[in-house]
Amino acid sequence: MKSRTWVLLRRLMRNIMRSPDTIITVAITPIIMMVLFVYVFGGAIETGTDNYVNYLLPGILLITIASGIAYTSLRLFTDVKSGLMARFITMPIKRSSVLWAHVWTSLVTNVLTVGIVILIALLIGFRSNADILDWLAVVGILSLFTLALTWLAVIPGLTARSMEGATAYSYPLIFLPFISSAFVPTETMPKIVRAFAEDQPVTSIVNSIRALLYEGQVNNSIWTALAWCIGVMIIAYIISNKLFKRELG
């Protein structure tokens, strides 16, 4: 199964590398947003830190991933509507390989895009005192977040009736970090908004990444972040596989 998944993964990656503008397009919006907030709004936002880009970066990385997984849904939708998916499932390969190829492709492309965003952040002043273990923990959290959103992306990719429908679901995910601790401390928000912000998954993920990058230690928020990522991933995985069997037999 692994070799067949690898073959399907290479097919998708070749298509992406022939048109790398997909990766560039996904990276551009978060980069512009990061530069805008740092140089235009950063001086007016009180976060208790000397370097606003350090405070801002974890949230920008989540927005980058949320933007990128929309293309996973689009690629899957295209394979389904073109009939290519139906041809794949008639071949002597395990059906789960077809979905996993799209999921691993999403992970690889998001790693590339996140890398580009971090490089730009370094150019505008991002600095971290995290050691290698802290960075590996950050990579692990971001990877789990990517896998969770990617399996969510599989659902509209299989069921959408139009290209717009396949990608529209990602918009709420992109804006979710704005109502979290990604841009400002939740303590500055009105009570109702603060209650939502502190209990939604993005805040625990952002706080965990921020703590790993700058403080070297994390509190219980990391367990909340992991629970959200793993829980969403498992539920979306189960639903995706059921839909795959229903839609494509």
TrEMBL record:
Topology of the protein relative to the lipid bilayer: Multi-pass membrane protein
Subcellular location: Cell membrane; Membrane
Pfam families: ABC2_membrane (PF01061)
Annotated TM spans: 21-41, 53-77, 98-126, 132-154, 166-184, 222-239
InterPro entries in the record: ABC2_TM, ABC2_TM_bact-type, ABC_2_transport, Nod_factor_ABC_transporter
Domain of life the protein comes from: Bacteria
Principal localisation: membrane
GO cellular component terms, A-Z: ATP-binding cassette (ABC) transporter complex
GO molecular function, one term: ABC-type transporter activity
The entry's keywords: Cell membrane, Membrane, Transmembrane, Transmembrane helix, Transport
Residues covered by the ABC transmembrane type-2 domain: 21-247
PANTHER family: NODULATION PROTEIN J
Family affiliation: Belongs to the ABC-2 integral membrane protein family.
Name assigned to this protein: Transport permease protein
Naturally occurring in which organism (per UniProt): Gracilibacillus dipsosauri
